[in-house]
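A note from the maintainers: we've had questions about how concatenated examples are separated. There is no special marker in the raw files; a new sequence line simply starts the next protein. For clarity in this README we add a label.
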Amino acid sequence: MSHTRKCLAAGASPEEIFHVVLLALTTTGFPNMIAALRWVDTVLKSPKA
């Protein structure tokens, strides 16, 4: 989750972050990618984001 916050702080858009997670599918596998999407979504919906 901290990587998502660091990406946002560096100027990445939420769409770019989701795109990176989707690109990880072939490397990490579907279950891990879905978990990462949930983590990113949690960070983006939190009040601190």
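[label: protein 2]
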Amino acid sequence: MPRRLGQHVFGTCACVGPDFYAERGRRNGMFEELHRKMNRFWNADRTLSETDPEFIGIFSEFAYDTVVNEPGANDEKLDDHARCMAIIAAIIGSQGMDAFEMMLPISYHSGVTSVELKEIVYEATPLIGFAHTLPYLKRINDYLNVENVELPLAPQSAIGKQNRAKEGASLHRTLFGESADSDEEFRKMGAGHIDSWIRGDYLGAYFTRNGLSLQEREMIAFCLLMAQPDCANELRGHIMANLRVGNTAHFLIAVASQCLPYIGYPRAVNAVKTIAEVTHNDKQTV
């Protein structure tokens, strides 16, 4: 059973009493330590609940009570561990370093391991680019040093470099279907090498690694893409892949709902609409 919230990320909110959170915050264990550890993130001498009490009251009650306790925003597979990984991935996808620094310690102390944190950032690299993931990798390393975690971590590569193309192609068929064996559009444009890289690098080098299950990797890909603009086709493809590996539409809607406070309504709503579109099309083709 998750621990109760007690106090939220920005300090105690005057508009909501402790009994309210004790009763309503059953699912909020992942945020329990945020007040103690990250409350003074923006200002060394004053908390956000002191500088911006109305805003923090509105946001905190919504994000850490309404969303977390909404039945439609929960799924039996979405425990605190999975919720933390989803939010971390969505924050990285939306390039929210300040929010990432707030979520990093609570994710770690909610059971997201150092290997899992690193694997989320590694997986993000082919989706959002090294230029965007490097600051997050450096921040994780700084945090793990403070936590006295010995670096480098144990290697997580599961296959040899010579097998990446073959294993990536096999995984591509598993995730996207037999019809995805080749992308003629790429080849017609003279960009067949990029199609090969998707299999050998993106899938072969990253998705075959240990540290995260295939279901977790697909959930993370969904969160990374959902949080970015102009990724509709890629998001659609990874929603289909999520369904193929056993992450249900209800689970994905719950994930999008939990990430909504961090990425905003438009992107979360677009993700939910895309889930509905994909599942509707799947039913029509059965």
